[in-house]
Design goal:
Family: Belongs to the TrpF family.
Number of strands: 10
Protein name: N-(5'-phosphoribosyl)anthranilate isomerase
CATH architecture: Alpha-Beta Barrel
Bound molecules: ligand LGQLAAA5
Number of helices: 7
Number of domains: 1
Structural class: alpha/beta
CATH superfamily: Aldolase class I
Keywords: Amino-acid biosynthesis, Aromatic amino acid biosynthesis, Isomerase, Tryptophan biosynthesis
Order of helices and strands: EHEHEHEHEHEEHEEEH
CATH class: Alpha Beta
Largest sheet: 8 strands, parallel, barrel
Strand order of the largest sheet: 1-2-3-4-5-6-7-8
Pathway: Amino-acid biosynthesis; L-tryptophan biosynthesis; L-tryptophan from chorismate: step 3/5
Catalytic activity: N-(5-phospho-beta-D-ribosyl)anthranilate = 1-(2-carboxyphenylamino)-1-deoxy-D-ribulose 5-phosphate
Helix content: 25-40%
Distance between the termini: 5 Å
Amino acid sequence: MSLVRSKICGITRVEDALVAAEAGADAIGLVFYAKSPRAVSVQQARTIIAALPPFVTTVGLFVNASRCELGEILDAVPLDLLQFHGDEQPADCEGYHRPYIKALRVKAGDDIAAQVARYPKAAGILLDTYVPGVPGGTGEAFDWSLVPHDLGRPVVLAGGLNAANVRAAIERVRPYAVDVSGGVEAGKGIKDADKVRAFLAEVRRTTI
Ligand SMILES: O=C(O)c1ccccc1N[C@@H]1O[C@H](COP(=O)(O)O)[C@@H](O)[C@H]1O
């Protein structure tokens, strides 16, 4: 029997980070993608991370960022883990002296196992919903039955999760962790404390 880890992504405010940490989130996600309504500046990210208690993993989310842009952010922001959510190839994700997770956007007919195998150095694989033209954070779930049973890697399940469906999602996919953004928001980039608490409580009471 194991507990499923959790990440609350798209944090833009200190108060939301603290609610997530106090409610037991294992990680918070900071979006460094200017086109996202949840994008944070370097200074915002530093302020949020400085306010966190120990043992909360800080994840930086990037979408096709250049090496130069990413390097500048990493020089300034103490991120523990990188999440590549665009079309990054394996070589684009390596060389930053940080573990990374690669997001794959899932649709019917995909050979998920083959895509996962392309990223042997990834610490984990995040599975999100494929929506044409949108890299992520769509709030839409995908058909969880598309996920093969044993991908042999830590799987982070994402895409349209919320307190009402996360239990079923965990029981179906048996992921290492779940990741949520829109399902715990009051508005874009603003978390709803009650939704965050309800989501994390539901994750905690669901063992696999
Ligand atoms: O949150 C965003 O704005 C975002 C932008 C670009 C790529 C990914 C983004 N978020 C990630 O998308 C998934 C699913 O989010 P949701 O729960 O469906 O809203 C999650 O991993 C977010 O971290």
